[in-house]
What does this fold into?
Amino acid sequence: MCVDLVFLNLQFRHISYGIRQTKIKNQGSVVIASFGDCYKWQPALLQQGDIMSTASDTLKDLITDIGSEFDPFSLPQRDNPYPFYSRARKEAPVFYSPELKLWVVTRYDDISEILKHPTHFSSLHNFDPVYPLSSEVFDVLNQGYPNILILINSDLPDHTRLHGLLGTVFNEARMDAMQLRIQEIANTLVDSFVHNGQADLVEQYTRFLPITMICDLLGLPSTDAKLLWRWCNSIIKLLWWDISPEENLACAHNIVALHHYLAAQIEERRALPQHDMLTDLLNAHLHAEKPLTTSEIVNLATLLLFATTSISAKFIANALMLLLSHPSQLQALRENPTLMANFVEESVRMEPSLRALIRTAKQDFQIHGVEIPTGARLLVILASANHDEAHFPDPDRFDIYRENLQHGHNHKHLGFGHGIHYCAGAHLGRLLCRIVTQVLLQRLPNLRLQPDQILEFEPSVVYRGLKRLPVEWDVP
It folds into this structure.
């Protein structure tokens, strides 16, 4: 489908369109100062995306009721944003949020177009915080390893090199080889509560299972999993939560501690190689590409640990919530295990843990009659795209028989992203969800949600994860 997405002085999808040059630049909450292949965090001169302080009255007029009402941190949108997304897709599919200083995109076709054109929409500022940080926080962050380019916040051609080097050591064959270990970790966790008849699956099962597994892959002690989870969760809070200055400072210290921990592990392997992924990253080579630097390995390892806490763990909990909230679907899955793959895909569509991505416009463009200036930051809401009626009939219905879900289908969901930044760990996420669900259904008879529970979600712009998932089952 050809989307009304047109750029200044650019032939795009056979459409040429010129718009007024806009003297507006999104400054971001931080400035990235380049030194060599590294980037140092610095406070910005202007507040993040402070378009409104420099914009014309015409731009200010574009703030709609939808834009003013967008608030992912508060109820009801925090726990159930889908009615708001539906309204936005119909009334204002692209709108400006004055609170977050982001342009928000909600329709499937628009988001798909943006994600598959990295030459026009940059990923470099994905790790810029949503809210401005103090100079004290930056002083702490700069005690760690610099925020260099990694997969999630790199553009071409850097992304091609990093993706290729990581792909030599983090691939589907290596992930598949972890199946027995994932089963072992899952069963060990279930052993700790199987006789209790009730548990909080977030706290006792899904939170630490993926990070324990990734510790095994990297060669890190599994006994450090909880500490690593706390450090990685600080990244999510610092970048995408609305927290106090004191909490921001504590998060910054945790991120620096994580960097120093990983650097020490890398130096150990430089002196004494091991049979693990950290050693393989040190030795990774691809054609004529230069090998990974220590800073790059620290940041790639951080990304892998962070992704398990921010994407995999939250996704598994969301999937289990959906399944347990729909007893007929649960029974169908028990009776027909071949539906497992579709259950996983429908869960990613229905409740993606990666609810949104951030992109930066490299040039002026227009979408649905709205002019977006060069440098503007876009929040593309994957969760809204996955509920777009134009692609998914009856989108708010959880249906493990749904047909247009599988990867490669013309109407596949965007729960793992799209284009060159399609999630490198998507295969592992699917594998984890399948195995941990199978273990629970096998070990816990008549598994069900505890009655009269209100399920709450964490207050995040980018990620969507449950705070708790209280369940119960029959104990023989």
